Amino acid sequence: MDVSCVVTGGARGIGRGIAEQMVARGARVVLTDLDGEAAARTAAEIGAAEGLAHDVRDPEAHRAVAASAARHGRLTAWFNNAGVGFDGTLAELSEEQVRTLVEVNLLGVLWGTRTAVGAFGDHGGDVVNTASLSGHGPVPGLSVYAATKAAVVSLTMSVQAETPRRVRVHALCPDGVATQMVADMRPDGLARALVQSGGRMLGVEEVATQAVALLGSRRVVRTLPAWRGGLMRASTLAPSLSQGATALFAAQGRRAGRS
């Protein structure tokens, strides 16, 4: 029997990379995006089974996507990858931007995870949530985005503990990735500088590879690269001291951006 999977936010970037790798593994991929035309075009380009318009903020839309995937084969994997990344301090972001960050990055993952866990049935499967390194510590200039990603990490750990052993829930937390989301950040903003402070930006293909590698594993949270995860988690032990470190990282990131 054919197996199917769902990749949200799959028209470009990390989502497209994941979809390409799942197609190569023989899965019948249902690729979704808010931009339905882009989803259909990408699906045709990479050989996915279907490309659908999908607003992840709508719980019913997730159920419709799950039904589409079931028509292509047994659903075994669901990648909650759709996300937005408006940069700016909490005071700078508009109310609409704050609401969109929370509804897409957090509620979208909640609805997707709940739908996937219910749709897997007795055979089980894997949910892979695209979180972020920012979910492990303070990231000024990305405070709301980081808060949503921290919530995704927490959600992943809790749902993994709730589900039967046949269902596995994972969160991938990459450092800065060379995607349009990062390219759209303000060039002179603190967020862009901090994202660039880790040195080489991660590539879409390597992040997608790590996301797909989580399938079938018992690994719940993976940071990429691992050393940045340890550094971020250490910063939470002394938040009052992190401001000085932030300034150093920002300066490093600005130098990297000029090179």
From TrEMBL:
GO biological process: fatty acid elongation
SUPFAM superfamilies, per database record: NAD(P)-binding Rossmann-fold domains
PROSITE patterns (UniProt xref): ADH_SHORT (PS00061)
Family designation: Belongs to the short-chain dehydrogenases/reductases (SDR) family.
Pfam families: adh_short
Identification of the protein by name: Short-chain dehydrogenase
GO molecular function (one): oxidoreductase activity, acting on the CH-OH group of donors, NAD or NADP as acceptor
Annotated ranges, domain Ketoreductase: 3-175
CDD domains named among the record's database cross-references: SDR_c
The organism's place on the tree of life at top rank: Bacteria
